[in-house]
Every structure is written in C-alpha cells, then in structure tokens.
Amino acid sequence: MKCRVCRGPAVIDIRRHNSNFCVDHFLKLCRDQVAKAIKQFSMLEPGDRVLVAVSGGKDSLALWDLLVELGYRADGLYVGLGIDGYSDVSGEFVRRFVEERGQTLVEVDLRADEGFDVPTAAAVTRRVPCSACGLSKRHLFDRAAREGGYDAVATGHNLDDEAAVLFGNLLKWQTDYLGRQRPMLPARDGFPRKVKPLVRLTERETAAYCVLRGIDYQVEECPMAAGNKHLGFKETLNDLEVRSPGAKHDLYFGFLDRAVDRFTSAGDGSGDVELGACAECGAPTTGEVCAFCRLAARARDAEPVALGPPRRRR
After folding, report:
1. Is 117 in a helix, a strand, or coil?
2. Which long-range CB contacts under 8 A does 225-232 form with residues at least 24 apart?
3. Which of 121, 142, 144 shows the shortest CA–CA distance to 132?
4. In the chain, at which end, N or C, are there fewer CB atoms within 10 A of the end residue's CB?
5. Angular region, 117: left φ>0, alpha ψ -120 to 50, beta rest
6. Are the C-beta atoms of 216 and 65 separated by less than 8 Å?
7. CB 271 within 8 A of CB 190
8. Phi, psi of 273 (to 5 degrees)
9. Angle at CA 33, nearest 5°, toward 1 and 214?
10. Contact 122, 129 (CB under 8 A)
11. What's the pLDDT at 223?
12. Fold entry, domain 12-308
C-alpha cells in the first residue's frame, strides 16, 4: 500500500477518498480538512481566542492539537461531570496532554463548583442521562466563554457524529434541530459562537491522528451513553459506509448544501423569541430561571448516585 502523494509506505487507507496516505501526508490531510472546514463555514478568524471543550477523548484532543498546529490561540476547557470510574480518568488524559504540550486549561468540577453531578441530576429529574449531561455542559461552556472573553467555543464533533444526529433528526423530522445542524452557529444574545472544525474528518481518522501524533486518550466509553439512540444511528451509517464509501459525507454535506436553509427560521435562533437574564445566574434564557439552574436546584440536595465501570469503546 503506497501513499497517493509521495508513493512511500502508507499507514492508512481512506476509502471515501479512494486513497492511501503515509504518516506525513495523512497528518497534512487532517490539517487541511480542518482548515477547509473553518474557511468554508467562516468558523474562525486569525487572532480569535478559541475555547476548546475537551473531554479526554480522541476527538476533542485531536481538535485542540490541530487548532494549535494551525496557529489559533486555543485554550482547553474540561468539565468534571462526576461520573464514577470515568470522569477522573478522563481528566487525567486532559491534564497529561496539557503538561506535555504546554497548553492552558480551564477546569470546572460540577460536584465541587455547582453542588451536583450528572448521574445524580439524571436520576432526580428523570432525564435521559445524555440530556442532563448535554444541558450542563452547554451551560458551563457558554459561561466559561463569556467570562474568559473567548470569541468561540469549539467542540470535537466529527463527521460520524453529525451524520448520525442528522439521520436521527430526519427520521423524526425534528425541524427545530434540523435548523441548527450547521457546523457554525454565530454568537447571539449572550451566547458565544459555536464551531465544529472536525466535520470533514471521521472518528477513525481522528483516532489515527492521535496515534500518529502521540496523543494518549480515554478509550473507555462513558457508562451513561449505554442505550443512546445516536450510537445505533452511527452503527447503521457505518454499515452503509462499508457498502457505499462516502455515504456519510454525502448525507451531511448534501443537507448543508441543499436543505438546511429550509429549516433556518425554525431552529437557528433568528426568530422572534426574546431572551432575558436568568434570575439565578444571569445567563440568557426564555424564562425567569434558566434550565440549568432549574436542574441544579433539584439535584443539589439529592444523595449522589454511583455508576458501574465504563465500557470499552469498540
């Protein structure tokens, strides 16, 4: 197997490109794909301060490394979610990355700083665990960006993630969510700009990037993700990708090119909804108290919930 560019020994094949790449040219491909996504969707400008939401997994650490490689001023934000047997280990991978590469990290511990953790919040409010987790992280990401004066929050959502979410939203025609499927959401009404620079790379490619760059990452899967419907959508799309390489890319980017504008007014925040300040924390909200503060109020006095050990990613 030879590299398409230099004809040297290849280390990875990418079927949707019908190409193989050596180490140097694969790493260049990853940088080029991220730079292309940033330019294509006007995600970032030179000099922007970027806050990268890092979990300790391959995608977020690869993203942070890639943004630094591309010359962006990127700091990391790690949120300790209080998930037994998982959060502590994830934090160790993030801190190791910071120490080895001399980067700046902002840390928030949900239990120590906010008085509750995700497993407890999910149990008390009877939310799907990923819903309680997502609500908490979005609030803390937004707050850290505002308080730190960052221009954008970057998350490690890759092509597999976005295609699976899109597939699920199309199955149920969730028009509000379809309107927010863009890889860049502009700043508005106190919310920072949100960007997803990895949308042109797959999960397999970010894992290979980390291996080749010597980035150690959390391999175990979050125990709270068990039963998440998007994992099933990913498996379905992975099967389709085997039979039709490029299917995920065609689905996601075809939607962005041809259909997302049809749903913009429903979900991009450009409607007439008025936002005020949360009476508890001051965050933008449509009600008197924001969803995060309502969640926290119910979870703070509850007995912490323990979880079993995490599962290994396949």
Report:
1. coil
2. 225/129, 225/130, 226/311, 228/130, 229/168, 230/161, 230/164, 230/165, 230/168
3. 121
4. C
5. beta
6. no
7. no
8. -70, 125
9. 65
10. yes
11. 83
12. Rossmann fold (3.40.50)
**CA distances from residue 258 to 128, 134, 199, 234 in whole angstroms, order as listed:** 32, 28, 17, 22
CA pair distance 92, 85, nearest whole angstrom: 12
The pLDDT confidence band at residue 307, using thresholds 50, 70 and 90, is low
User: Residues 237-243: what's their mean pLDDT?
Assistant: 96
Higher pLDDT, 306 or 2: 2
User: What are the sequence ranges of the domains in the chain?
Assistant: 12-308
The amino acid occupying position 45 is E
Average pLDDT over residues 260-285: 76
Map 19-50 to HEC letters. Answer: EEECHHHHHHHHHHHHHHHHHHCCCCCCCCEE
- Calpha distance 88→93 (Å, rounded): 9
pLDDT at 22 over 50: yes
On whether the pTM is more than 0.90, the answer is yes
What residue type is 40 in one-letter code?
Q
Contact between residue 265 and residue 252 where contact means Cβ atoms under 8 Å apart: no
Question: Cα dihedral sign for 42, 47, 53, 58?
Answer: positive
